[in-house]
From TrEMBL:
<feature type="disulfide bond">
    <location>
        <begin position="470"/>
        <end position="479"/>
    </location>
</feature>
<dbReference type="GO" id="GO:0030855">
    <property type="term" value="P:epithelial cell differentiation"/>
</dbReference>
<dbReference type="Pfam" id="PF00093">
    <property type="entry name" value="VWC"/>
</dbReference>
<keyword id="KW-1015">Disulfide bond</keyword>
<protein>
    <recommendedName>
        <fullName>Neural EGFL like 1</fullName>
    </recommendedName>
</protein>
<dbReference type="InterPro" id="IPR001007">
    <property type="entry name" value="VWF_dom"/>
</dbReference>
<feature type="domain" description="VWFC">
    <location>
        <begin position="625"/>
        <end position="683"/>
    </location>
</feature>
<dbReference type="Pfam" id="PF12947">
    <property type="entry name" value="EGF_3"/>
</dbReference>
<keyword id="KW-0677">Repeat</keyword>
<dbReference type="InterPro" id="IPR013111">
    <property type="entry name" value="EGF_extracell"/>
</dbReference>
<feature type="domain" description="EGF-like">
    <location>
        <begin position="482"/>
        <end position="520"/>
    </location>
</feature>
<dbReference type="InterPro" id="IPR049883">
    <property type="entry name" value="NOTCH1_EGF-like"/>
</dbReference>
<dbReference type="InterPro" id="IPR013320">
    <property type="entry name" value="ConA-like_dom_sf"/>
</dbReference>
<dbReference type="GO" id="GO:0005509">
    <property type="term" value="F:calcium ion binding"/>
</dbReference>
<feature type="domain" description="EGF-like">
    <location>
        <begin position="409"/>
        <end position="449"/>
    </location>
</feature>
<dbReference type="InterPro" id="IPR018097">
    <property type="entry name" value="EGF_Ca-bd_CS"/>
</dbReference>
<dbReference type="GO" id="GO:0045778">
    <property type="term" value="P:positive regulation of ossification"/>
</dbReference>
């Protein structure tokens, strides 16, 4: 049966015993060879990328058994998955079918449940080579319960809600009741606080010219001709409004000392000149405008300390003065935003920079809003801010200042102030920057990690695009090849031992006729001879004498007719020099020589057409005798062997026989299993050990001084991705005045 349907999964109200998360099960069982974990359609579960390459996403036996049992015991099921398929492709998402290859596993220790005969469970493919799906798969689940589709629509309006719906509704009501009670308490407290605040009256005061004013209090500043007020702690002033004078034809509007607004005063017209009240004119004699008429006045002019050429006659006066006279010193009144300026023959008020005269009169001036009137110098990427008598050019967000009037874009990428990862491309934008991982890297731009399409096996690390750094003992583009230290003569075992290759490692195994003395030294130097004579494991017969040899023994005839050199074999007697076929293995030939029995396999001659292929499977070139690797893309000849998932596998006439690897015995106290390897190593640090037995009666202190129980775990403060663990063992030492010593340690591991 093959199924290919697209759904979105949301777990909701289903008994976990009746549902199977295929991806989690395969990932936990390390059965996801050939696919790569990637960012999925959402971040709530793992997603994997299936490419058009050789792969074998095949369920182990216990998963297959569970799936088949549920299929047999249930009459209804629902298949759910979130997929993103590559365009213009086809493939199988999930498949259950009979196996196309005969693969059997012989597991000795520990026992495991075999695959159901004739069945196989595949994800993203129909078999090893057929129906390969191309794209991303996420949230693959089987739900063996009625209405399993409801898990996709938890908010669906159903006429018959499930028990889970009802329980969720009850829990929701209880949560709302608890929230309502908490909100009621908070509202009551807020009301009591408001009642207290209503009885208080707080106001912000203002200070101006050494005087403190209350909020909303008004006052007049006659010297500046303005009305001021205190508004929430801020002094706000406006110029006193002066209505139009509307003077008659025989009068002029002029400033009168002590007043802010112009007043109407009589005017005089004489010799085409118009004079206001009090102004004088020198013709043949000095005259002054009084009540609209020019009246002769007598004025005694002071003596001047300058020559006649240096003297000038000021406007509306009758006496000369010296050049450079300070008219402003006579006390001309100008407003706060204007200042007195000396001219050649008079003094006048002039508006300060940034201010303009009111109705053409510079005595009192008002601020010019350069931003509104477009009289500013702010360039692009700035915002004009009006100030009293001036303005300011502020940089827009994302820009930095060049000078007082212009700003340029802040290039975080060029300045090295971006948040991008070293393996990301920084793109500057108007109000910031964007980070995107370089080709061959994945992440959000701030964090980019190298992406290896085929992944790194055997504990390897992807350090750059499609480049793996392999741990010790492995090599290959994807760390898929074990280094055979024995074949490459990288190590030297003792003469009494032989080198045995293991995935990522090796060990020196005692040769036949030798055994380890119990120290289990790594170079095999702890292998000592077995004395077959003393242990009565020899085969010497009659009067022959057993003589122990390094790695074996010999049977020596001393004297007498009974010392014939015959051999005892299977409760029978074989004569010296006799040869016969092995009773249990017709491919082996045995012989008797001087009391010793020797059995060895017959020599194979593949060029001989009469060669027994059963005894010489390496001569079998038939395709039916070949075996396919568990990954589905390596073909082996009969009698070839390989290592897969810490099992030794061998091809025998088209059948794959696998058994667990035999790990060497370790004499050390602490050992650890390195990722990608099958057998543990000796370690001296108990924090790194996997076989440590925690003593729950003991404790240790973490760096913060907190006492932790043995085997307890906790996150490291300030580093949420690091987990610490307390490891304490009780060990006995023979020391003076002490019996038992406790070895304390704590370890941390980053995740």
């Amino acid at each position: 049966m093959s199924t290919a349907m697209q759904f979105t999964l949301i777990g909701f109200g289903i008994d976990p015993d009746y549902q199977i998360d295929i991806i989690n099960e395969l990932d936990f069982a390390n059965a996801i060879y050939g696919i790569t974990q990637v960012a999925g359609l959402h971040n709530n579960s793992k997603a994997f990328l299936f490419r058009d390459v050789g792969r074998a996403v095949h369920a182990p036996a216990h998963i297959t058994e569970k799936v088949v049992e549920l299929f047999r015991s249930k009459s209804e099921f629902t298949f759910l998955a979130s997929i993103q398929q590559k365009t213009s492709t086809s493939g199988v998402i999930f498949s259950i079918h009979e196996s196309e290859h005969r693969i059997y596993e012989r597991v000795i220790d520990p026992p495991q449940m075999d695959l159901t005969l004739g069945s196989g469970v595949w994800l993203g493919q129909h078999s090893h080579k057929h129906g390969l799906f191309k794209g991303t798969i996420q949230d693959v689940k089987f739900i063996f319960a009625p209405n399993g589709y409801i898990t996709q629509c938890p908010n669906l309006n159903r006429s018959c809600p499930t028990c889970s719906d009802f329980l969720s509704l009850v829990q929701g009501i209880m949560d709302l009741q608890e929230l309502l009670a908490k909100m009621t308490l908070k509202l009551n407290y807020a009301e009591s606080r408001l009642t207290q605040l209503e009885s208080c009256r707080c106001e912000r005061t203002c200070s101006a010219n050494g005087v403190v004013y209350r909020d909303k209090e008004l006052w007049v500043e006659p010297e500046n001709c303005r009305n001021c007020g205190c508004m929430n702690g801020v002094v706000e002033c406006r110029r006193i409004f002066c209505p139009p004078a509307n003077c008659s034809e025989d009068s002029l509007s002029v400033h009168v000392e002590g007043t802010c607004c112009k007043k109407c005063r009589p005017k005089c017209t004489y010799m085409a000149q118009t004079l206001s009240e009090g102004q004088r004119l020198l013709t043949k004699r000095c005259t002054e405008c009084k009540n609209g008429m020019m009246v002769r006045v007598t004025e005694n002019c002071p003596e001047l300390n300058c020559t006649l050429k240096e003297q000038i006659l000021p406007e509306n006066r009758c006496c000369n003065i010296c050049k450079g006279y300070d008219f402003c010193a006579e006390g001309l009144i100008c407003g706060e935003n204007s200042e007195c300026k000396n001219r050649n023959t008079r003094a006048e008020c002039e508006c300060k920079s940034g201010f303009a005269s009111i109705h053409g009169d510079s005595t009192y001036c008002e601020d010019i809003d350069e931003c509104v009137t477009q009289m500013h110098y702010c360039q692009a990427n700035t915002a004009c801010v009006n100030l009293l008598g001036s303005h300011r050019c502020d940089c827009l967000p994302g820009f930095i200042r060049v000078d007082d009037y212009s700003c340029t874009e802040h290039d975080e990428c060029a300045s090295g102030q971006s948040s991008c990862d070293d393996n990301a491309i920084c793109t500057n934008t108007i109000r910031g920057h964007l980070c995107s991982c370089k080709p061959g890297y994945v992440g959000n731009g701030s964090i980019c990690t190298a992406f290896c399409e085929e992944g790194c096996r055997s504990g390897g690390t992807c350090v750059s695009p499609n480049t793996c750094v392999c741990p010790s003992g492995f090599t290959g583009l994807h760390c898929e090849t074990d280094i055979d230290e024995c074949a490459e003569v990288l190590i030297q075992c003792h003469i009494h031992s032989r080198c045995v290759n293991l995935p990522g490692w090796y060990h020196c195994e005692c040769r036949n006729g030798f055994h380890d003395n119990g120290s289990y030294l790594i170079d095999g130097s702890s292998c000592i001879d077995i004395d077959e004579c003393a242990t009565q494991t020899h085969t010497c017969w009659n009067d022959s004498v057993c003589v122990n040899l390094p790695g074996g023994f010999d049977c020596m005839c001393t004297s007498g007719p009974a010392c014939s050199g015959d051999c005892l074999y299977e409760e029978g007697l074989k004569h010296n020099g006799q040869k016969w076929n092995h009773s249990l293995d017709h491919c082996s030939l045995c012989s008797c020589k001087d009391g010793r029995t020797f059995c060895m396999r017959r020599e194979c001659h593949c060029a001989d057409p009469e060669t027994d292929l059963f005894c010489c499977p390496e001569c079998d070139s038939r395709k039916s005798s070949q075996c396919l690797h568990q990954s589905g893309h390596i073909l082996y000849r009969s009698r070839d062997s390989w290592i897969y998932s810490c099992q030794q596998c061998r091809c025998l006439e088209g059948k794959v026989d696998c058994w667990p690897l035999a790990c060497p015995v370790l004499a050390c106290k602490y050992s650890a299993l390195v990722e990608g390897e099958c057998c543990p190593h000796c370690v001296t640090d108990p924090c790194l050990a996997d076989n440590i037995a925690n003593d729950i009666r003991q404790t240790c202190q973490d760096p913060a001084g907190i006492t932790r129980l043995s085997s307890a775990t906790w996150p490291m403060p300030g580093s949420p991705c690091t987990t610490c663990k307390c490891k304490v063992t009780a060990t006995t030492h023979i020391l003076p005045d002490t019996d038992t010593h406790t070895q304390n340690a704590y370890t941390h591991r980053s995740t």
